[in-house]
Amino acid sequence: MDPEDHQSPSDLRQVLILRPPPVFAVHEQYFSNKFQILKAYDSPLPTHDFLRSYAQSVRVVLCSGVRPITAEVIRDLPALKLVVSSATGVNHIDMAECRLRGITVTNVADVFSDDVADAAVGLYIDVMRKITASDRFVRGGQWPVTGEYPLGSKIGGKRIGIVGLGNIGSRVATRLKAMGCVVSYTSRHKKHSTPFIFHPNVLQLALNSDALIICCALTNDTRHMVNNTVIKALGKTGVIVNVARGAIINEVELVNCLVEGEIGGVGLDVFENEPNVPTQMLELDNVVLLPHRTAFTRESFHDAAQILLSNLEAFFTNKPLLTPVANQF
Amino acid sequence: MDPEDHQSPSDLRQVLILRPPPVFAVHEQYFSNKFQILKAYDSPLPTHDFLRSYAQSVRVVLCSGVRPITAEVIRDLPALKLVVSSATGVNHIDMAECRLRGITVTNVADVFSDDVADAAVGLYIDVMRKITASDRFVRGGQWPVTGEYPLGSKIGGKRIGIVGLGNIGSRVATRLKAMGCVVSYTSRHKKHSTPFIFHPNVLQLALNSDALIICCALTNDTRHMVNNTVIKALGKTGVIVNVARGAIINEVELVNCLVEGEIGGVGLDVFENEPNVPTQMLELDNVVLLPHRTAFTRESFHDAAQILLSNLEAFFTNKPLLTPVANQF
Predict the structure, then answer these.
(1) What is the nearest CA distance from B276 to chain A, expressed in angstroms?
(2) How many angstroms separate the CA atoms of A38 and A67, rounded?
(3) Helices then strands (H, E): number in chain A?
(4) What pLDDT is attached to residue A108?
(5) What is the CATH number of domain B113-289?
(6) In the predicted model, what is the mean pLDDT of residues B28-42?
(7) B276 has which bridge partners?
């Protein structure tokens, strides 16, 4: 049965967006064809007024990390029943408020995990083998002039510390093991279904690793967890890759360690105050910088759009949601 | 027994170098401590005259791809017994002339294979996920201004064609398989000990692949093997990584295909006329350029130096060489 045949009136298929998630921006036509998209970001009204003007009708919000769904937003939409997130993490949504009001949240499951893990490995190889810095050396015309370029470091045999052995961390571990690395990890609890070595905290992990790959969620416990002490425990030839959230690292202390030569190199996809990157980093050759893009591939954006559309379609036709997020105390 | 105790007179431990191999340049002290190094490159004499001045005594030459050991060089050194190469390949040595004169050749076995394979994977991820181009975007200050950056391509599920499934190619295959790629290959002969799909030539491989990773030796058969026809068979979203030798690709035809958008992107460590890189490539964002450095890590240079020193020590103490290269018809 084609859902188009029994389409509800368009005013009952309203989807409100505060700021367009990247997946929506790329595949907007798919959404516009099937749903009435209410764009707060295109309205001249202040957000609060825009939300109140749809207070009685809007049952669905589509969102991502680019704009949090706060308790205030939720209270402005008393008819809200569903928050559809185009991200895997839901730390940009006030889950307690959703729980209180019986609002369901869906995410896109682990559709981006392989991409983020691939990019983490790419960043690690890049820092170790100086790929981006070498490309700059060649493009700057220096090869015929100076000839020499500093040696890189070998990947095989290095002790990799994975911070957070979840969907992404475990994929990074598998990939680096195939390159001859020795993998250990830290996480809230020791995992019994993995062959990798457990350390009870990030400092112990750093003391026993040549590199840290940060793959954990940002929580009150993990904020600024990678600080001056942890960085120095990793040591002067240590490498840090962060594909999780910028605030897991104390960025000021990281910059100081980079400038002082207290760490070998870093590959960063995320920063504390995106899109702003500390200016000292821009001059350093042992730093590789991405604009928060490790999840951004054509294929995964297509897959994520399909999950979002399927969740929306399921909601409006009273069928089971594909990827609801557990939301219990 | 410490070899120092029975050291031969220094004039019998002469090692002649035409141009310093990179491994020697980094670890020169190790060599100078044990052997009398005769540096043609430091002499005001023309090479021929320098060689003739040591014609009666020099039994060993240390070399690498930076300066070929031609039949002329060999004929200038009638006492020559051993050519020690700091590379794995020996295409820079006139092997036929060595055979005729009973000169043994040693290489460094596969000490660099893991490093080259790691860098090949790094180049592939970089091109697919736009790491170097994104770093340039961030360093150029564009992130806060334009915000958007083009999507990359997913690694998992891609059909990888390995050109030459030897020590390096098989390591690249293992690594990319761990990332979810489907690997096939071409080589002179089908290999029976591998699970990967065989194609009889590079054109068939290109027709059935999303990317080519070139890992084969440069021979008369492989020179310009990757030409316009092969590149177009790979297609407009195809990717080529070359960590072998520049001349395996017809560089003029590759540049044309890049400029015309007939190929998705390339990652190149090697070029036809090193250190010169075609200027059109320097402006392209879908190209990653390394200065022939995929083998260059501190760890492997150290290991390679140990192999070179051990071969030299073995020769001067009449012990079996570690890594002689088979040199038969």
Answers:
(1) 7
(2) 15
(3) 13, 12
(4) 96
(5) 3.40.50.720
(6) 97
(7) B273
* Distance to chain A for B109, nearest Cα, Å: 17
Q: Which of residues 68-127 of B touch A (CB under 8 A)?
A: 114-115, 118-119, 121-123, 125-126
- pLDDT, position B1: 40
Q: Does pLDDT of B11 surpass 80?
A: no
d(CA B89, CA B111): 11
Tell me, yes or no, if A274 is annotated catalytic.
yes
**B245 assigned to active site:** yes
A114 and B154: CB-CB below 8 Å? yes
Q: Which contacts qualify for B324-327: CB closer than 8 Å, 24 or more apart? A: B324/B104, B324/B105, B324/B106, B325/B85, B325/B90, B325/B95, B325/B105, B325/B106, B325/B107, B327/B95, B327/B98, B327/B99, B327/B104, B327/B105
Average pLDDT over residues A86-109: 94
Catalytic residue among A67, A171, A175, A292: A292
Annotated active-site residue B67? The verdict is no
Share of chain B above pLDDT 90, in %: 90
Best of B23, B124, B129, B210 to substitute, by most chain A Cβ atoms within 10 angstroms, is B129
Handedness of CA A13, A17, A21, A24 (dihedral sign): positive
Extents of the domains making up chain A: 3-111+298-316, 113-289
From chain A, pick out residues whose CB is under 8 angstroms from the CB of B284. Answer: none
Chain A partners of B155 at a C-beta cutoff of 8 Å?
114-115, 118
Cα separation, A56 vs A51, in Å, equals 10
Which of A131, A154, A179 is opposite residue B297, by nearest beta carbon?
A154
Q: Predicted ipTM?
A: 0.92
pLDDT band at B4 (very low <50, low <70, confident <90, very high): very low
Q: What is the pLDDT of residue A4?
A: 45
Give the span between the Cα atoms of B268 and B275, in whole angstroms.
Answer: 12
DSSP E strand boundaries for chain B: 14-17, 36-39, 60-63, 82-85, 104-106, 159-163, 182-186, 197-198, 211-214, 239-242, 265-268, 287-289
Q: What are the pLDDT digits (tens) for A30-59? A: 999 999 999 999 999 999 999 999 999 999
Which residue, chain included where needed, has tokens 């100081």?
A256
pLDDT tens sequence across B278-322: 999 999 999 999 999 999 999 999 999 999 999 999 999 999 999
- Residues A313, A60 contacting (CB under 8 angstroms): no
Which of A180, A274, A275 is facing B114, going by the closest CB pair? A180
pLDDT tens per residue across span B155-202: 999 999 999 999 999 999 999 999 999 999 999 999 999 999 999 999
Q: Taking CB atoms and an 8 Å cutoff, what residues of chain B touch A118?
A: 125, 128-129, 154-156, 179
- Indicate if B113-289 has the same CATH topology as B3-111+298-316: yes
Domain at B3-111+298-316, CATH from 3.40.50.720, 3.20.20.10, 3.40.190.10, 3.40.50.280: 3.40.50.720
Rounded-to-integer distance, Cα B232 and Cα B241, Å? 15
**Mean pLDDT along residues A101-116:** 96
Residues of A in contact with B301 (CB under 8 A): 151
Local confidence band at B65 (pLDDT 50, 70, 90 cut-offs): confident
More confident residue, B1 or B128: B128
